[in-house]
Design goal:
Elements (H helix, E strand, L loop, with lengths): L1 H4 L5 H18 L9 H19 L6 E3 L4 E3 L1 H27 L5 H18 L4 H19 L6 H32 L4 H10 L6 H18 L7 H8 L2 H26 L4 H21 L7 H22 L2 H26 L2 E2 L2 E2 L9 H4 L1 H15 L5 H15 L3 H27 L11 H16 L5 H12 L9
Antiparallel strand pairs: 1-2, 3-4
Helix pairs in contact: 2-3, 2-5, 3-4, 3-5, 4-5, 4-11, 4-14, 4-19, 4-20, 5-6, 5-11, 6-7, 6-11, 7-9, 7-10, 9-11, 9-12, 10-11, 10-13, 11-13, 11-14, 12-13, 12-18, 13-14, 13-17, 13-18, 14-16, 14-17, 14-19, 14-20, 16-18, 16-19, 17-18
């Protein structure tokens, strides 16, 4: 038993893995249930909640198992709780929508669990091999989930595009990892950090090349410009609950992975990776602001919006200080709730004839369903960064960290991009409140309604009680303090 206790840090992952396999067997040997496999879905929620409890009650210090390949620390716990919470809310949102389309199958639920398992491994990765295994487990599950609506061309196209571009990004990431291994002699982040620290970047150009390719692979996963090409098509083609999952959990896991890589494996060559992060940030903020202006499909609009939000989050990474890291974690938590709330509203854009996705379909929504219009308006205001909503504080923290680090041009570009992006959010609000009603939506279902309630409460009340999240983010950052160079 004493030998087994050393694997306690991996217990949440073991629970999710065994839960996924058990639910796979449960689904296979059970008769198909018409209208959706709700039993498997509720059991999956139970597995995820048990994993969340194990994550939250785990030891508070930093622990490493499998020769440092798996790291359990405060940073990992913070991000895992966000991802598990997002996955639970997505499953709840899926009940009505996917059941009506006959897609709420046990396969869908099991694939979501395996994707969550991959994300948890990504967040705790302590070397390049664990990093790659986590990314591939997540990605292979998501390729299938994107194309789960097999009888629709748009969904199949989304899955194929995601697969092809994902395979390309994995190849680049592996090439970068092989270069890093070749020039450092190790895959362990700690050894890589010590080698990089002891050499000048000019004296080890190969290591810098490896880092560039590694960051390109991760940039695909967070859909940072110019590696964002798959995002609008996949968001539009995949079923809406799947799109909500893409927009939330995988983005958070890949951002956590990016932060762990640059702050634990490459703190010694920060000027090199800072240049890359600054470029990705500026490009993502500007494209997210301008490309969304002409969109008429609300899911494509949310795709460009998510690209812009990743750009804002990267501002905190580029700051390369404790305040920046804390700001990124706060931003990601707020982004999770805003995104899931927005997609819960999009799921509720449904008439008797089916689901609508055009922005013009929201015309006069305030006259026919004022509560839904209010919730969507507040979430969009928050995304635009209007005070005193949660989204304002998300941007305030990252821009303040950039200013503290002396990155004044980056902060100014971020503020200007936020002003431009506010236009397309305000356009949707204008359509809802000032245009004449053209559609009458059916009443909001319980699943999306529950998620909308949680999202709106978070967005509105964050200003009153910001301290719990701020303190939790700071504690998570301080678990990485030993390897963060504080300028």
């Amino acid at each position: 038993m004493q030998h087994l206790s050393i694997y306690a840090p991996v217990l949440p992952e073991i629970v999710v893995a065994l839960g996924a396999m058990a639910l796979l067997m449960f689904g296979v040997f059970r008769k198909a249930t018409p209208g959706g496999d709700f039993a498997t879905a509720w059991l999956a929620i139970g597995v995820l909640l048990l994993a969340a409890v194990l994550v939250a009650t785990g030891t508070t210090g930093r622990e490493a198992v499998f020769d440092g390949a798996f790291i359990a620390d405060g940073f990992a716990r913070f991000m895992k709780l966000l991802i598990i919470g997002g996955a639970v809310l997505v499953i709840i949102m899926s009940f009505g929508n996917l059941a009506r389309q006959g897609l709420l199958s046990f396969e869908y639920i099991v694939l979501l669990l395996l994707a969550v398992l991959g994300m948890m491994l990504m967040i705790s990765a302590g070397d390049l091999i664990a990093l790659y295994l986590g990314i591939e487990l997540q990605s292979l599950s998501l390729y299938v989930v994107a194309a789960i609506k097999r009888d629709e061309v748009r969904s199949s196209e989304a899955g194929l595009k995601y697969f092809v571009l994902g395979a390309l990004s994995s190849g680049m990431l592996l090439y970068g990892a092989s270069l890093i291994y070749g020039f450092t002699g190790s895959v362990d982040f700690g050894v890589i950090a010590s080698v990089a620290q002891g050499q000048s970047a000019a004296g080890n150009i190969g290591l810098t090349f490896g880092l560039v390719f590694l960051l390109i692979g991760i940039a695909f996963k967070i859909s940072a410009v110019p590696f964002h090409m798959w995002t609008p098509d996949v968001y539009q083609g995949a079923p809406t609950p799947v799109t909500a999952f893409f927009a939330a959990a995988p983005k958070l896991a890949a951002m956590a992975l990016l932060m762990r890589v640059v702050f634990t494996a490459f703190p010694g060559i920060a000027p090199q990776w800072q240049q890359i992060i600054v470029f990705l940030s500026i490009a993502s903020m500007l494209l997210g602001a301008f490309a969304a202006i002409g969109q008429t499909n609300i899911k494509r609009l949310m795709a460009y919006s998510s690209i812009g939000h990743i750009g804002y989050a990267l501002v905190g990474v580029a700051a390369n200080n404790e305040a920046g890291m804390q700001a990124v974690l706060i931003y990601l938590a707020i982004y999770l709730f805003m995104t899931l709330g927005a997609f819960a509203c999009i799921l509720s854009m449904r008439t008797k004839d089916g689901i609508l996705e055009d922005i013009d379909s929201l015309s006069g929504l305030a006259k026919t369903n004022l509560p839904m219009a209010f919730v969507l308006a507040m979430i969009l205001f928050s995304m635009a960064g209007i005070p005193p909503l949660a989204g304002f504080f998300a941007k305030f923290y990252v821009f303040a960290a950039a200013i503290k680090a002396g990155l004044y041009p980056l902060a100014v570009i971020g503020v200007l991009a936020s002003v431009v992006a506010a236009y397309y959010y305000l356009r949707v609000i204008k359509v809802m409140f000032f245009d004449d009603a053209t559609q009458s939506f059916v009443p909001v279902e319980r699943g999306p309604g529950f998620v909308m309630t949680i999202a709106i409460l978070f967005v509105l009340l964050f200003v009153l009680v910001p301290q719990p999240l701020v303190n939790a983010a700071l504690a998570a950052v301080q678990s990485l303090q030993t390897v963060i160079p504080v300028p």
